[in-house]
Amino acid sequence: DQQVKQNSPSLSVQEGRISILNCDYTNSMFDYFLWYKKYPAEGPTFLISISSIKDKNEDGRFTVFLNKSAKHLSLHIVPSQPGDSAVYFCAASSRNSGNTPLVFGKGTRLSVIA
Amino acid sequence: GAVVSQHPSRVICKSGTSVKIECRSLDFQATTMFWYRQFPKQSLMLMATSNEGSKATYEQGVEKDKFLINHASLTLSTLTVTSAHPEDSSFYICSARGTGRVGEKLFFGSGTQLSVL
């Protein structure tokens, strides 16, 4: 039973346009959400996070939106660049449960076409 | 930013041999490290949680006698795949939860691609 779901395995976007990556979760105890970016044969690198007390967090070209009632979050990248091509993982945790590990989605492969 | 170093990056070994993977937090102390594995086109699956100075906590279905985890210091955790078999071939990634200035983010090593022949 997947607690974090990324239903789109892949996404192609033209350079300069907006990329929107979606993530849904089922565990209502999750209160901290993160996005990681991963290149082939490398470990994931942290991109941006959001706490459940917020509904939006912005960092440069990256914005994460959280809709708690829908248990949905999305990552917006604008403008998209070819270097953004990678696999993006959504992750969630429940900080109130102590030192719990992150639960990851299966990832979405983003291809930004020049 | 915080750095987690994982070594080796790639291992090819014969069936039946043991392989040790090291994970070091280079500029922060990590009381907790996590070990994940990833099969192609799958998500990162947590194998175990490693706490400094105590026994690791393994996820359901992960054999603790096969995947030995040692977290002897605040900057080093090791995963040993004992008597490796072809089905153990996978991408193994360690991570460390940040503390202090780096916050609560999880920092990942670069991963180890294990291929068992």
Question: Mind explaining what this structure looks like?
Answer:
The complex is a heterodimer of chains A (114) and B (117). By secondary structure, chain A is an all-beta fold. In chain A, 0% of the residues lie in helices and 53% in strands. Chain A is built from no helices and eleven strands. Chain A has strands at 4-5, 10-14, 19-25, 32-38, 45-51, 56-59, 62-67, 72-77, 86-93, 103-104, 108-113. The radius of gyration of chain A is 14 Å and the shape is globular. The model of chain A has no long low-confidence stretch (mean pLDDT 91). The termini of chain B are far apart. In chain B, strands 2, 4, 5, 6, 9, 10 and 11 form a seven-stranded mixed sheet that branches. The radius of gyration of chain B is 14 Å and the shape is globular. The model of chain B has no long low-confidence stretch (mean pLDDT 88). With 117 residues, chain B is mostly beta strands. In chain B, a hairpin with a 6-residue loop joins β4 and β5. Chain B has strands spanning 4-7, 10-13, 19-25, 32-38, 45-51, 57-58, 67-73, 76-81, 90-97, 106-108, 112-116. Classes of the chains: A mainly beta (114), B mainly beta (117). Chain A binds chain B through residues 2, 4, 9, 32, 34, 36, 41-46, 49, 89, 91, 95, 99, 101-107, and chain B through 4, 6, 9, 32, 34, 36, 41-46, 49, 91, 93, 95, 97, 104-111, 113.
Give the topology string of chain B: H per helix, E per strand. EEEEEEEEEEE
Note the main sheet of chain B. 7 strands, mixed
Please state the oligomeric state of the protein chains shown. heterodimer
Summarize model confidence as the mean pLDDT of chain B. 88
Point out poorly predicted stretches of chain B: none
Summarize the largest interface: chains and residue counts: A-B, 24 and 26 residues
Query: What would you call the structural class of chain A?
Result: mainly beta
* Total of DSSP H or I helical runs spanning 4+ residues of chain B: 0
Which outline of chain B best applies?
globular
How much helix, percentage-wise, in residues of chain A?
A: under 10%
**CA-atom Rg of chain B in angstroms:** 14 Å
